[in-house]
Design a protein that fits this description.
The protein has about 140 residues and is of the alpha/beta class. Helices cover about 45% and strands about 15% of the residues.
Length: about 140
């Protein structure tokens, strides 16, 4: 993210959250530094505390991008993430190959090829954000 932010001349503020106790200080720093948006990485701790994150961004009217659709279905603004159903199907193909005698070390490492872009219009309205029609047209799913 640092390289992309630099290329776009955006200031990236990294807020480390390693334990439950770190959320309040991360949120306080985001407010102090006047963060204008939030991107959460895939992280089990953040996923388990998604309600706390969603409440913070709603209260502070911040647009936010999440690592999976569960955040958006729970009230978050948007996500762009691998299609996990597709990943599970690919994993099943690998299991099948291994059960048929393939050596796991001989199987290639694959990157996700199918991604889903999901937008929650309720969340956009809640923070006073209008999503342009061309962005909505690109979404795989729009929650109204």
């Amino acid at each position: 993210m640092e390289g992309v932010a630099k290329a776009l001349r955006l200031e990236l503020l990294s807020l480390e959250v390693r334990s439950l106790d770190d959320f309040e200080s991360a949120f306080a720093r985001a407010k102090k530094e006047r963060a204008q948006a939030l991107i959460t990485p895939p992280n089990p701790l953040i996923a388990n505390q998604h309600r706390q994150v969603l409440d913070f961004v709603a209260k502070n009217r911040l647009p936010a991008m999440y690592p999976n659709s569960e955040f958006v279905e729970a009230g978050g603004l948007m996500s762009y993430a691998p299609n996990y159903t597709d990943l599970f199907r690919r994993a099943a193909d690998y299991v099948d190959k291994i059960l048929k005698g393939a050596k796991p070390a001989d199987l290639p490492v694959e990157q996700p090829t199918k991604f889903d872009f999901i937008i929650n219009l309720k969340a956009a309205k809640q923070i006073g954000l209008t999503i342009p029609p061309n962005v909505l047209a690109r979404a795989d799913k729009v929650i109204k």
